[in-house]
Design goal:
alpha/beta, Rossmann fold, Dihydrodipicolinate Reductase, domain 2, 2 domains, five-stranded parallel β-sheet, 14 strands, globular
Length: 342
């Protein structure tokens, strides 16, 4: 497939590599940074595109990838959707509900095909975990416990200029930008949320909008409870995603914020726990993770079926993240709005 890139940063290069690995071609790239454009075009041999040329390249593409900062994408989204070209959009879809609803209105107006890039959802280890949970072998959810702690953006207040995430004009913080992954992974297993309580904090005084630690407690609509503990400023990388149900438990663990290396489970009728080991690393194989998402996107397009991570999921994640931020800022437990449930 011929794919046009809007945004040419580090993650966009992984998108380009996935396209090429699937037998496709990057037909062009747009970015506001001349430096990033030079790196991108050198790797993929594609032209760099000026702002007023974007729509011409969109119309020649089989699909478009938008990986710009979420605060800077409304005009790009309309340039794609108005020409009825499928869109792969990086999460989070936006930073405010106002922008998210503008995107939804555009999607409705143009009957758009949009997949949100919750790439971790498509990884083999998580897909196996989801498959086992969906069999019902662990029963109804009682406690969903996610923990992911690692050095990350702005770690010890270093390399602040290396990412838009720590740019004072673009930052939206961990609770919106990164926890969006967790909302999708949890709702796929256990449904939506009734209430959310959160405390978040940032350790970089120069970027007050950048929270890099968040602690969330939530209640599922089904009655189970959820905890999410996340940090981009932890010296010891580790992670665990756990589903504890009425009939058994399953854990996905690894050494690193997004390392999925061991899946372990046990039910009430099993004498011993069982495990599968995966070589499923985001830190060491980011390209593989992005590849799985593009493979799923292209398969859905070819088959004419719905995406597993549609725009509605992206908006749901933003609803939950903004509820968490409000909880922390006002020191209250927030009842989640009915609209936007995954």
């Amino acid at each position: 497939m011929n794919v046009f890139m809007i945004g040419g940063g580090d993650i966009a290069r992984h998108h380009g590599r996935a396209v090429v690995r699937l037998g496709g071609k990057v037909t062009g790239v747009y970015d506001v940074s001349e430096k990033m454009l030079a790196v991108y075009t050198a790797e993929f041999g594609c032209p760099s595109v000026a702002y007023d040329e974007i729509e011409a390249y969109v119309q020649q593409a089989d699909y478009v990838v938008i990986s710009t900062p979420p605060t800077k994408r409304l005009d790009y989204v309309e340039m794609v959707l108005k020409h009825h070209v499928p869109l792969y959009m990086e999460k989070p879809v936006a930073c405010t509900m106002d922008d998210a609803m503008k995107i939804k209105d555009m999607a409705d107006k143009y009957d758009a095909k949009i997949m949100v890039g919750f790439a971790h959802y498509y990884r083999p280890a998580y897909q196996k975990m989801l498959e086992l949970v969906k069999t019902g072998m662990f029963g109804e959810p009682v406690d969903i416990a996610f923990s992911r702690l690692s050095p990350g953006f702005g770690f010890h207040a270093k390399n602040l200029g290396a990412s838009w995430r720590t740019d004072p004009d673009l930052a939206c913080g961990m609770t919106v930008e990164s926890v969006s992954h967790d909302w999708k992974l949890i709702t796929a297993m256990a449904g939506g949320f009734e209430t959310i309580a959160c405390n978040y904090t940032g350790t970089i005084a120069s970027v007050p909008k950048f929270d890099n630690h968040t602690s969330i407690t939530a209640r599922l609509r089904s009655g189970g409870i959820v905890t999410i503990a996340a940090s981009w400023a932890c010296d010891i990388p580790t992670c665990s995603r756990a589903y504890i149900g009425t009939k058994g438990s399953i854990f996905l663990t690894g050494e690193g914020m997004f390392e999925f290396t061991k899946l372990t489970w046990k039910t009430e009728d099993m004498e011993y726990a069982e495990s599968i080991t995966f070589n499923d690393s985001y830190d060491h194989a980011t390209g593989d993770v992005i590849f799985y998402a593009h493979e799923a996107f292209q398969d859905a397009l070819k088959a004419g079926r719905e995406f597993d991570t549609p725009l509605a999921d992206g908006i749901s994640a933003l609803v939950y993240s903004l509820a968490a931020k409000r909880s922390s800022e006002e020191q209250i437990t927030v009842k989640v709005p009915d609209w936007g449930e995954a």
